[in-house]
Amino acid sequence: MTVLERQLTKDEIYDTLDPTDFESQLDINRYGRRTSAFDKIISATHDHFWDPVDKRYIDFDEPFDLENEYLVDPVLVAASRTAVWDALDEQNRIKLANMDVHWSMSSILHGEQGALSLSASLCHILRDPGAQEYAANQAREEARHVTAYAKYVQSRWGTPLPVGPALGNLLSEMVNSKLAWKKIVGMQLLVEGLAMGAFATFFKHGRDPVLVRLVQLAMTDEAFHHKFGKIWADRTIPKLDEDEKNTIEDWAWQVFDTLLYNLASPEQKKSIYAKVGLDWQWVQSAFMEALTDEELRKQMQDATNIFRVLIKTLLQAGIITQRTAPRYAAFVDMKELHDEGEEMVGDSIAAQGIEFLKTINGGSNPLLTRPAAAAE
Ligand SMILES: [Fe+2]
Ligand SMILES: [Fe+2]
Fold first, then answer.
1. Mind listing the domains of the chain with CATH numbers?
2. Closest CA to 189 of 249, 143, 264
3. Residues, Cβ < 5 Å to ion ligand 2
4. Is the model's pLDDT at 168 over the cut of 50?
5. What gap in Å lies between CA 186 and CA 134, rounded to an integer?
6. Hey, which of 119, 165, 199, 323 would disulfide with 139, CB 3.0 to 4.6 Å?
């Protein structure tokens, strides 16, 4: 069995069972061996409780004029920095920019479903009851994200767009894997890191108040999911042998590379360009022309740039070392990232969101105060 196919368990709290081996979950000696490593992040869940079907938290019925207003500052739309922009009149620019958000929100929705299914699958393979409780708690939070993003997409466009092949394949690989490391590095570190970066960007540049509220509420949860990945890394990475460490580093690089070149690729979202009368291959050439290495590096200097956030996540987790740093150094100043400390870009936005939630949740049990209509 190659390293890539092994569990690489270095701390027994991440010990695994086969997902079909439910009998072993009934082992009477298992229940008493419960880690407390995740108790703090499990019990913190009450501080960031929110409910996507309760208007005190977010109101998806607030209207938005999609024909005439940008959902996000157009600087966020990659096409605005290319010849594509010159080929469109203002009405079509708004149309394309808002379809781009439709694409992103659909991708996020699929990502949230991936996170929900992945967390649930962790419950089936992790042996430790404390680790299972964490995973079950994350699954419940991801489920509310699926509800929330589905409601947002429905309110603005009716239905989501199909998943792009690159993201779809990646999510499937992680959800269907039996390997805890692949699930945790792939989801809690890479995809959660990507989500934190993307949400911070929408928070900063969003012009639709519902969208801004939505990403901030999701971030109050995601910040904790990222912590679970970090705890795994702290307890695992230093104990890996050379071969194992290289395997994880290389797999993470491969995922990063796939995400970088596919998420924003015109080929993945052909359908939206067709709707403003543009051929995706022409769009791609316009992108290539504008996106020089220098331009890419410049964009990545923005602290909320999602790929910069992703690189920082991997760096903090010890998954970028001297061996692999040069690959990432093509995009960011690694020393600058190193010197920044542990604070992640979304942390302060999440903290502010939690303060807002406390004003609604108060001291009472929010589950008991949920309006009857919302429980239908
Ligand atoms: Fe989520
Ligand atoms: Fe998450």
1. 45-364 (1.10.620.20)
2. 249
3. 115, 222, 225
4. yes
5. 17
6. 119
Going by C-alpha positions, the residue among 165, 182, 140 that lies closest to residue 16 is 182
Ligand 1: distance of its center to the CA of 253 in Å? 22
Q: Residue 68: which residues within 8 A CB-CB, separation 6 or more?
A: 94
pLDDT at 363: 60
Distance 192 CA to ligand 1 centre (A): 7
Query: For 308-314, what is the mean pLDDT?
Result: 88
CB 122 within 8 A of CB 186: no
pTM of whole model > 0.70? yes
- Say which ligand is closest to the CA of 188: 2
Q: Report the run of H or E that residue 70 belongs to, with start and end.
A: none
Please classify residue 67 by burial: count the beta carbons closer than 10 Å to its beta carbon, then call 0-12 exposed, 13-18 middle and 19+ buried.
Answer: exposed
Q: What is the DSSP string of 286-311?
A: HHHHH--HHHHHHHTTSTT-HHHHHH
User: Six-digit token pair at 129?
Assistant: 């009851």
Residue 72 near residue 205, CB atoms below 8 Å: yes
Q: How far is the CA of 310 from the centre of ligand 1 (A)?
A: 16
**% of the chain exceeding 90 in pLDDT:** 65
Query: How many angstroms separate the alpha carbon of residue 55 from the centre of ligand 1?
Result: 20
Ligand closest to Cα of 223 equals: 2
Distance 276 CA to ligand 1 centre (A): 31
DSSP state of 16: B
The single-letter code of the amino acid at 337 is L
Phi, psi of 128 (to 5 degrees): -70, 125
pLDDT value of residue 376: 40
